[in-house]
Amino acid sequence: MKHTLFAISTVVLVWAVGASAQAFPNRAQDQVKAVATLPDIADLVKVIGGDQVQVKAICKGTENVHAVRLKPSHVVMTSRCDAFFQVGLSLEHAWVPGLIKTSRNREIQAGQPGLVTLSQGLTVLNVPTSLSRREGADLHPEGNPHVNLAHNAGRHMAALIRDTLTRMRPKHQAEFDRRFKAFESQSLKAEARWAKLEGALKGRKVIVYHTEFTYLLNDLGIQVIATIEPKPGVPPTPGHLTKVIQTARENPGVVILTAAWSNNRAVDRVVTVGKGKKLVLASMARSGQSWLASMEAMHVALAKAFQVPYGMEPDKPAPPAKPANADEKQTKS
Predict the structure, then answer these.
(1) In the predicted model, is pLDDT for residue 160 greater than 60?
(2) How far apart, in whole angstroms, are the C-alpha atoms of residue 170 and residue 147?
(3) What is the CATH number of the domain that holds 276?
(4) In whole angstroms, what is the distance from residue 248 CA to residue 246 CA?
């Protein structure tokens, strides 16, 4: 990855100044130029910042976020941004540090206020007791980094984004506060709905490929009974796969959770031989999708997989009231 970034930097930074207009086109004079690692974050930056920001996301929403392929355009946009938003907890550790260093953007280097880590302050799960590489290739010393899927993550990240934008453009504080409060209200309604679903799903069992759904499953009370990866980032051996298949057989019809990037032959084998039911979920929002919509879609999918009732989607208008005599008319017809 270091060699790749060096090669990109030698080609890109020569023309980065001229290309910056393409990275952030039609920018108003006072707009904050922001780069986000995930579409989830880009959505929240836009939700809170409104017309006062321009934001670009690096991930498209279907990648393995631990192994993102960087492009010259990523270096350009990063070299010209005012703020760089990341999840942190080593989620993007394989590519963000090198990208930021290569960008030569003083505003977002480590320790500078333009580099914003949105996981700060959230409760972290699965903090390892050992940091040996024998514990896995995707080892995260600070704990499981996929906090963007926690029920309260949206409100938490949005609050930190509001604070960052307020610090950068204090004259727009009232607007940022107003937009945050509107999002907070939406999020609290969604969280209440998700909490009701927890009552129906608590104690249900799943098998996962990777540990990216840990926070979502924990909030819903769903139990992980096996992981297809023997350790994070390590492909399953035949022996380990046999054990997972046996676990699946002992739990007929168990749901097998995977993301788009890990929907592979190992998953298919567990589903086919273990008689499980595959469910592909997003580990982040897709480009152009909001954090709330992405989270809602996951809850809808889980409810459907476990065949439990679930409330209406966020912002979906209630169906029109049925006339009092509607049933009577149907009966007569």
Answers:
(1) yes
(2) 28
(3) 3.40.50.1980
(4) 5
Closest CA to 210 of 77, 65, 106: 65
Q: Would residue 24 count as lying in a domain? A: yes
Shared-domain flag, residues 40 and 150: yes
85 strand-pairing partners: 36, 116
pLDDT (tens digit per residue) in 232-261:
889 999 999 999 999 999 999 999 999 999
Identify whether residues 203 and 283 lie together within a single domain. yes
Instruction: Give CA–CA dist 26/6, Å, rounded.
Output: 30
Torsion of CA 14, 109, 55, 140, to 10 degrees: 120
Alpha carbon distance 109, 114 (integer Å): 8
Give mean pLDDT, residues 318-332: 42
Tokens of 225: 């009974």
* CB 55, CB 82: distance < 8 Å: no
Residue length of the chain: 333
3-state secondary structure of 234: strand
Whether residue 234 is found in the same domain as residue 165? no
Among candidate residues 61, 136, 55, the one with its CA nearest the CA of residue 293: 61
pTM of this prediction? 0.85
Q: Is 283 found in the same domain as 241?
A: yes
- Backbone φ and ψ for 126, nearest 5 degrees, come out as 60, 40
What is the sign of the dihedral through the CA atoms of 28, 50, 80 and 74? negative
What domain range includes position 146?
Answer: 2-121+137-190
Determine phi and psi for 97, rounding to 5 degrees.
Answer: -55, -45
Inside any domain, residue 277? yes
Residue 189: how many CB atoms within 10 A of its CB?
Answer: 13
User: What's the pLDDT at 326?
Assistant: 42
Angstrom distance (rounded) from CA 184 to CA 181:
5
Identity of the amino acid at 263: N
Burial of 311 from C-beta contacts in 10 A (0-12 / 13-18 / 19+): middle
